[in-house]
Amino acid sequence: MLRRDFLALPILVAAPRGPSSPLVVWNGVGHGARPNLPARLFDKVTPTSVDVYAENNANTRFAVFVRMPRQNDDFVQFLELAGTWWVAEYRGHDDTGSMATFLVDRADARRIAAAVGTTAAERTRLDGGLRTTWRIPAIATTSNTPIKVTLRVDNAGPLTVGLAIGGRQRGPRDNRFSFYIPDEPIIDAPDFGGLMYYAKLAPGDHTEITCDLRSWAKLTTPGSYRVTATYEGELAKDAEMPNGPRDSANLWDIAVTTQATITIVRP
Asked: How many angstroms separate the CA atoms of 155 and 20, rounded?
């Protein structure tokens, strides 16, 4: 950021606290001349911790997770490093203090990590040995009886991983599954999260996940239907639940898809 841009901001600045660092967290409000610039700054914040970790498999999007003493909820946190600014994408607090998350690219993640004496945790591939098999009935009736769809996941690789089960089932169905059926309306059924755990898959292990296709489509008219089924999941290294923000780099997103034809007949 140019000096003239900085001076144009109406700023109320408290004296800096704690050891000096090229990375600065500010309390501010509004947006200035550029999207990430605050319209008004108030004071510097001394973080209690800063974690930098990848948020996607490609290691192109990173989160900078900052913990700090409890802050006024009316303030928005801004991150500044050598004239570059970021505004918090997410903010919150718990009984330990406040927290803010900033989203940055890989190059900036490395710069920010170096500024606070850490590294930017990157993801490594976990699905190299994963094998998936779908079972979708070829024939079902027009009655409202369930149409059971099963996804089998085999770990044929050398690493132990955990497959996320749940997390999107607090509602009428498990929304990790999704279906597309041409010319057949898909039932709208949002979820509200849900309890989640990691099913441990050591080398050679497998697990199965099931759902009822009729939770997505009624399929009460006789005929043949082309079904595209997708399951969006998540793998965890060593089947360990992340323990702190940085452990999010030990995850790996997966999405497996298949197509099948199902014929609906009268009972």
From this structure: 48
Task: Clarify whether residues 92 and 151 are in a common domain.
Answer: no
Instruction: Evaluate whether residue 102 is within a structural domain.
Output: yes
| CB contact set of 7 (below 8 Å; sequence gap of 6+) | none
Domain that includes residue 81, residue range: 3-115
Could you tell me the mean pLDDT of each successive run of 10 residues in the chain, 267 residues long? 33 39 89 79 95 98 98 94 94 96 98 96 96 98 96 97 97 98 96 96 98 97 98 97 93 98 97
CB 141 within 8 A of CB 218: no
Are 145 and 258 contained in the same domain?
yes
Report the amino acid identity of residue 13.
V
pLDDT at 6: 31
Q: Note the pLDDT of residue 228.
A: 98
The amino acid that residue 20 corresponds to is S
